[in-house]
Amino acid sequence: MPRVKRGITAAKRRRKILKQTKGYRWGRKSKERSAKQALMKAGAYAYRDRRVKKRDFRRLWQIKINAGARDNDTTYGRLMASLKKGGIKLDRKILAELAEKEPEVFREIVKTSLGSSRKSSE
Q1: Is there a contact between 21 and 10 (Cβ–Cβ < 8 Å)?
Q2: Minimal CA–CA distance to 69: which of 98, 101, 105, 110?
Q3: What is the rounded CA–CA span in Å between residue 102 and residue 111?
Q4: Per residue in 104-118, pLDDT tens?
């Protein structure tokens, strides 16, 4: 079996790893073993945080909607229940944006939903 020299392949792999860790601090940008470990950790954090980001934004939207709802003399829970009963299908992202940037429109949505939920419960 012929001898395989891996100098080029190994060097390419090293260069690729070190290129990806450019901008990291201390030895993690220049030492091959530390750079490889840092990349593995960074990948794991990135994977995890792509999912955490969705949770964080939903929590933020809930806070914004609750603030808007309390400005209109109701709570987040009551508002969401009345929206569901009233058949108003707006997601939390849109509601949060309306509560923050268009308070008049949000006020009308709250009035409509609370009015329609009271009618349906009677």
Answers
A1: no
A2: 110
A3: 15
A4: 999 999 999 998 766
Burial class for 114, CB neighbours closer than 10 Å (0-12, 13-18, 19+): buried
Assigned fold of 9-121: c-terminal domain of poly(a) binding protein (1.10.1900)
How big is the CA angle at 24 (ends 49 and 35), to the nearest 5 degrees? Answer: 90
Encoded tokens for 16: 């690729």
- Say if residues 118 and 81 touch (Cβ distance below 8 Å): no
Amino acid making up residue 109: I
pTM: 0.80
Q: Are the C-beta atoms of 31 and 69 separated by less than 8 Å?
A: no
Ranges of each domain in the chain: 9-121
